[in-house]
Design goal:
- This protein is mostly helical.
- Helices cover 75% and strands 0% of the residues.
- It has helices spanning 19-31, 34-63, 72-80, 85-111, 118-150, 156-168, 173-197, 211-245, 253-263, 267-290.
- The two termini are 38 Å apart.
């Protein structure tokens, strides 16, 4: 009678384990662990809250002017003013840090493919670059949320101006600012592309969603991704203009980008459409928290 064998790694018996493979497997298990996935859900909710509030602030800017900055710092400041706002900001910050950790696990998971060839390597490079960028963004947003809760945060626009000025002081800093601007423009255009082609559906598992929910998720993504893409493209354009003019004040952040929309012909209508799109993107993030991507 045959007995099923248990295949276990034969440590100490001459079997050489692949450290890269072990790291990838560990990262994969971490990325799919229940506790990290649940924390990442909080992070997606935090992203949703952030974008809904920025959209609301952009609407106020379009129709009433003034008010808080229509950017991340203005959104977090609005949360702080709510009853229990400081606690909410800490929860949002922790969620964003968890989302960064989840993306870091994705970096290790895809890093194994860097040694492959052909299309597999290109795909791995693409995922690693995007995941690293998201890690940086989520950590930055998490820090901003915590600093806002503790009352030590600067406005996002001011931070960007200071960062741009610091880069200008480096060798080749003007080139770096311009390059960063072009990258942000490219990311913005990619968001528009994702919205147009519905490519965003690859990042959310809607197999358990109802038909009406699937339709809503699709429409929200089709509206939200292009709107966010337009805002990012203008933001990147301002960075490029700052590099061309050698003026850090031109790098005025997301608030400056939205105010730029307001200054063009029919700017109030255009800014209203962008604001509605940002709210739609925020609601899409809520659905993404409910139906995360399965890897």
């Amino acid at each position: 009678m045959c007995h099923a064998q248990s295949f276990r790694p034969a440590y100490g018996k001459g079997v050489v384990m692949d450290p890269q493979r072990n790291a990838a497997m560990t990262a994969h298990r971490a990325a799919n662990s229940d506790w990290l996935e649940n924390l990442a859900r909080v992070g997606f909710i935090a992203l949703g809250v952030l974008h809904v509030l920025i959209g609301w602030l952009a609407l106020q800017l379009a129709w009433f002017g003034g008010g808080k900055s229509a950017d991340q710092s203005g959104a977090f400041s609005s949360v702080k003013e709510l009853p229990g706002g400081q606690v909410l900001l800490w929860i949002l910050g922790i969620g964003l840090f968890a989302l960064a950790l989840w993306q870091a696990a994705e970096v290790f998971r895809w890093a194994r493919g860097l040694s492959a060839g052909g299309d597999a390597r290109k795909k791995a490079i693409s995922h690693v670059v995007k995941s690293v960028a998201k890690v940086v963004i989520y950590i930055s947003l998490g820090i901003l949320a915590i600093r806002t809760a503790s009352g030590t945060a600067q406005s996002s626009s001011q931070q960007q101006k200071q960062a741009t000025q610091g880069i200008f002081g480096m060798t080749g800093g003007r080139f770096l600012v311009g390059l960063a601007g072009l990258i942000v423009v490219a990311v913005g255009l990619y968001h528009v592309y994702k919205g147009w082609t519905k490519k965003f559906l690859e990042g959310i598992d809607v197999s358990e969603a109802s038909p009406s929910q699937r339709k809503a998720i699709t429409r929200l993504g089709q509206v939200g991704y292009p709107a966010k893409g337009v805002a990012l493209a203008i933001l990147g354009g301002l960075l490029v203009w700052a590099a061309i003019t050698y003026d850090p004040d031109k790098a005025s952040g997301l608030d400056g980008a939205l105010r730029t929309v307001l200054d063009v012909p029919f700017g109030k209508i255009l800014l209203t459409l962008v604001a509605i799109g940002l709210v739609a993107f925020g609601v899409f993030c809520f659905f993404r928290a409910r139906y995360p991507e399965r890897t």
